[in-house]
Amino acid sequence: MVDIQFIGLLNATLQAATLLFIAALGELITEKSGILNLGVEGMISIGAVSGFIAAINTGSLFFAIIIGVLSASVFASIHAFVTVVLKQDQTVSGLILTILGLSLSSLIGKKHVGKKLDVKLESVVNIAEPDSILDIFLSQNIIFYLGILLMVATAYVLKRTMFGRRLEAIGEDLKSSDSMGLKIAKTQFIATCVGGAFAGLSGVYLTLSYVPYWTDGMTAGRGWIALALVIFGGWKPYRTAFGALLFGFLEALGPRLQTYGFEMSPYIVKITPYIITILVLILLTIFKNGDTGAPRNIGIPFFRENR
Amino acid sequence: MNNYILSKKLFRNELSTFYSFLIGFIVALFVGSLILLIQDKNPIDVFSLMLKLSVGSINSLSNSLNKAIPLILAGLGISIINSVRLWNIGAEGQIFMGALALNFFYINSSIQNSTLYIFLLLTASFIGGSICILIPALTKVLFGVNEIITTLLTNYIVFGLTIYLINGVWKDPASLNFPAAAYVNESVYLPIIVGKLSSGFLICIIFTLLAFYIKDKSVFGYEMRIAGGSELTAIYAGISAKQKAFLAMLIGGGFAGLAGGIELLSQTHRVSTGISQGFGYTAIIVAAITGMRPLGIFLVGCLFGALTIGGSVIQTIGVSSYIAEIIQATTLFGALVAQFFFSYEIKKKVENG
């Protein structure tokens, strides 16, 4: 028998971490190819609202997940088109993607604010009163397990497959990759859309499980934390997962602090992930001589001068 | 399929940024119309109502220009920092920090002469914006830490700090369930020029000219451009690239901080979460769309201010205010696409020999 408060804290940590991790993992893949996409917040929002509307209208959770993932991926292709095909500034394009995503999803979701879902993602194993750590893990829903699967798969694909090696090569050195005949535009386009799909899955998790309703601005800056997580994790899937657990823990801890007898403001706890990320970023830059693990070509558009 | 190649144009049309903006804006109006049509609204009716209620009378026009002030000031700050080829995504946080610094100074001081007091308060807000960007600036020039990420993260830290303060030590008991700091005294409100137009707009004009001078006419601006252009050239010219980058960031942050100060003294009159409604992010669109030109930022800032006001008033006829934001974002996307065709050309491949 474990302390009931601890059970609640662990459960909330895992849920918050899942949400952050899946979006961060998608951004990691995008950035590995050399494309920086600051539109994570907007993509999560699009995934969240479209998944929610699909669930309301069809009642099918499977269909809702598919719709949420697909629409966020299509939405990310705007960024891919502007930065990969048209070679425009990635910072600007990503930022507008966030602004457009947030306003567009508010517009689409306006009629559905406050509606209640009849269906909700259920836990894989139905446990009425979880009272051990194992129970907590078993009572998570399908997207939690999907997240673990994606983590292993991403690590494997990046390190052990030709596609992954090529992707990393492009992110590290555009010119060499080009002379080796790698298809830069195609790979970067795919990586950006995959990043969008992951953000969409994270969004679906938000509206179908985490807080099962839709309201404006409910992503609440999680997309930006996901971006920070990629840096925190040094562009490595497993370290990013560890970071997600840490950030998820802090998010879960905030509102619970007082029950543990601490007199710390929950508002201050809420900003600690951002402070930690800045510190980690600074420390990594100093002690690893600038090698934070970032792909070298991130943010640089590729243009082959052939007149 | 590979018979065509992409090549960079040697010369770009001087006015290409302006044309790109126009094309982008037309595309955005078109996209906006489509969205309205889907919602069974007549776009012409909606747009003409937006126009009427944002610039149709002295009062509505002054509302629009008031909304433009933070967009312009923050946009100018972003453009100054961009002179050294650095990004400032933290304008939103700097706006809040400006308001926080102003309020901090206000609480801890008392000056009878209200003109002097207002001047000092606004100076405090400028310094607040600079302080907000201090850590990103220091870590950038000392260690080369990516400023996009650090300025971005400071937004959330400062916003968290604001919420902490207005729920804690600064909370006005009279504000009941809406957390906010106490109102500032009426004597330090920024005076109204005409209609509802705040004198903050005059400050805004002065700072636009100032930014234009700093960027395009002063030695400092020239040095910033060299420092941002090439490190080697800067070394040959005896310019400390790091020093210029550091100063540019502090000045740029200060501009955004001032925006927060003006917003407090002319609109909200107290620290609350309403100090900025994403002005810092919209300012990035404004700055990027004009190719970082101060005079362009001023004009587009006014247009976007009017769009925001237009967007908020059409809610009364059941149209979502988000239409305005969608138009703003799509304008930049459209402009980026147009910019591509101004900078590149697609040529037919010439066979070797």
Task: Describe it.
The complex is a heterodimer of chains A (307) and B (353). Chain A is an all-alpha fold. Chain A has a single domain, classed as ABC transporter involved in vitamin B12 uptake, BtuC (Orthogonal Bundle), CATH 1.10.3470. Helices cover 69% and strands 0% of the residues of chain A. The longest helix of chain A has 29 residues, at 4-32. Chain A is globular and about 60 Å long. In chain A, 52% of the residues are buried. Chain B is mainly alpha-helical. Chain B has helices at 16-38, 43-55, 58-82, 91-107, 114-132, 134-143, 147-167, 200-217, 219-229, 231-236, 241-268, 279-289, 294-313, 322-343, and strands spanning 4-8, 192-194, 197-198, 344-348. Chain B has a two-stranded antiparallel ribbon. A two-stranded antiparallel ribbon of chain B has the order 2-3. The longest helix of chain B has 28 residues, at 241-268. Chains A and B meet through α4, α10 and α12 of A and β1, α6, α7, α12 and α14 of B.
- Listing every helix as H and every strand as E from the N terminus to the C terminus, the arrangement of chain A reads HHHHHHHHHHHH
Portion of residues within helices of chain B: 55-70%
Which two chains share the most extensive interface?
A-B, 47 and 49 residues
Instruction: Summarize the amount of helix of chain A as a percent range.
Output: 55-70%
Main beta-sheet strand count, sense and barrel state of chain B: 2 strands, antiparallel
Lateral arrangement of strands in the main beta sheet of chain B: 1-4
Q: What overall geometry of chain B do the principal axes of the alpha carbons give?
A: globular
Query: What fraction strand of chain B?
Result: under 5%
Low-confidence stretches of chain B: none
Question: Strand fraction band of chain A?
Answer: under 5%
Q: Structural class from helices and strands of chain A?
A: mainly alpha
Would you list the SSEs of chain B in sequence order as H and E? EHHHHHHHEEHHHHHHHE
Distance linking N and C termini of chain A: 73 Å
Please tell me the overall pLDDT of chain B: 90
